[in-house]
Amino acid sequence: MASSKNNTMVFLFLLVTLLIGSSSAQLSTNFYSKSCPKLYQTIKSTVQSAINKETRMGASLLRLFFHDCFVNGCDGSLLLDDTSSFTGEKRAAPNVNSVRGFEVIDNIKSAVEKACPGIVSCADILAVTARDSVVILGGPNWNVKLGRRDARTASQGAANSSIPAPTFNLNRLISSFSAVGLSTKDMVALSGAHTIGQARCTTFRARIYNETNNIDSTFARTRQNSCPRNSGSGDNNLAPLDLQTPSKFDNNYFKNLVNKKGLLHSDQQLFNGGSADSIVRSYINNPSSFNSDFVTAMIKMGDIRPLTGSNGEIRKNCRRRN
Ligand code: HEM
């Protein structure tokens, strides 16, 4: 009798340990409060001056966090340059000639290392930088959970297979987010990040020339003016993801979708007669619900498989392991 009670206790203890261990219980919003009290002001001022120089940089920095977290978790792996022993993620298809802002991260890392050497991970710098970018461009604020450590390796293959493509339809978008524990609502809210920033002609050419359903024809023609039909010409010409307010973090991205003016095929999939339509409508009718769902989803995305405790390392230089 006593032993079966003991067994039950052991079982419950293991269950609780497992449950706590499988979420990212180790991340906390005050992780560096003693070890690096100037962290937030150090990061914010560097992000602010980068955005003052070029507004688009805020968008580019937000995207870095997404492309880091979706590939084996938020572990700074995206930032590693290629070495002789592995090919990094920077040259994976979704990233090459596309992700940008690495020099800004270098500047932030140098400033942080000066303030508190060897303490703050590159993965955490990405998380705070993403939040600061959103706030500076007029979006919501939140407390960022910290305590991630940096990966010692990167995976080009995982970057190719884990980051959703702009050609995806709704089902594939939903499953690529659910593969990292994010819901359809999280997916729609996070896609609202396309309220800022730019995309290259090659990522939306097929939509503006070949799609007839669910694209406003005047919008398509306008975009065609600076994105030639044939690939190889004008591939890197840019267009704003939110045609109304590309430098402001607001809910206009969702209004564009209802007007059939989503730039990417994947954007318009969120309002195409399917299960996401009602979420898009709710973010138009109630902008504060977009803000709060975006924050919830950013925190959830930041919780994807962090390295904590004695796993990984605190890189000195975000481009290479120690
Ligand atoms: C839902 C699936 C998503 C797809 C298919 C997608 C795809 C893309 C593509 C193709 C571009 C343009 C890249 C280029 O032209 O080189 C882009 C830009 C961008 N994406 Fe996404 N994205 C998605 C979700 C997200 C999420 C979750 C975030 C952040 C939370 C995000 C943030 C951004 C930002 C801010 C830009 C503009 C970057 C800049 O101007 O430098 N995206 N995305």
TrEMBL record:
Cofactors demanded by this protein: Ca(2+); heme b
* GO molecular function terms noted in the UniProt entry: heme binding; lactoperoxidase activity; metal ion binding; peroxidase activity
Where does the Plant heme peroxidase family profile domain lie?
A: 26-322
Known EC number(s)? 1.11.1.7
Domain of life of the organism encoding this protein: Eukaryota
**Compartment(s) where it occurs, according to its Swiss-Prot or TrEMBL record:** Secreted
Is Metal-binding among the key words of this record?
yes
One GO biological-process annotation of the entry reads: response to oxidative stress
Checking Pfam families in the record gives: peroxidase
User: Which residues bind substrate per the record?
Assistant: P164
Q: Where does Ca(2+) 2 bind?
A: T195, D242, T245, D250
| Disulfide cysteine pairs (residue numbers) | C36-C116, C69-C74, C122-C318, C201-C227
According to the record, how does the cofactor bind? Binds 2 calcium ions per subunit.
> What span is annotated as the signal peptide, if there is one?
1-25
Catalyses: 2 a phenolic donor + H2O2 = 2 a phenolic radical donor + 2 H2O
An example GO CC term for this entry is: extracellular region
* Residues of the active site: H67
Give the residues the record marks as binding heme b: H194
Annotated residues for binding of Ca(2+) 1: D68, V71, G73, D75, S77, E89
Q: Which UniProt keywords apply?
A: Calcium, Disulfide bond, Glycoprotein, Heme, Hydrogen peroxide, Iron, Metal-binding, Oxidoreductase, Peroxidase, Secreted, Signal
- Annotated site location: Transition state stabilizer: R63
What the protein does comes down to: Removal of H(2)O(2), oxidation of toxic reductants, biosynthesis and degradation of lignin, suberization, auxin catabolism, response to environmental stresses such as wounding, pathogen attack and oxidative stress. These functions might be dependent on each isozyme/isoform in each plant tissue.
The similarity comment for this entry is:
Belongs to the peroxidase family. Ascorbate peroxidase subfamily.
This chain's protein is named Peroxidase
Taxonomic lineage is: Eukaryota, Viridiplantae, Streptophyta, Embryophyta, Tracheophyta
